[in-house]
Specification:
Blueprint lengths: L3 H26 L4 H38 L9 H6 L5
Keywords: Membrane, Transmembrane, Transmembrane helix
Amino acid sequence: MENKVASAFKIVAVLIFIVGVLWAIVGLANQDPFWYYVFFTALFLGLLNYGIGEGLQLLTDIKMELINKNKVKSDTPSESLVDRFAKGGKL
């Protein structure tokens, strides 16, 4: 299940990064070193927002896994999120 808040953070992160790169390209054409700071600030803020989005998505996945584990008690063993991660699979 996709968390909408996490998706919003990821979209904002990509937009910040794209706008920052475009501003930096325009500024570098003018050979102004200020635009290096704009680029690195946009990179940092974009990565920070993307990381927050991924963290929220991970917490949502863990919460849903715990809810499903407590809700459904069956005889067939189901592979949990931790088991999939231990085998090298994606979360």
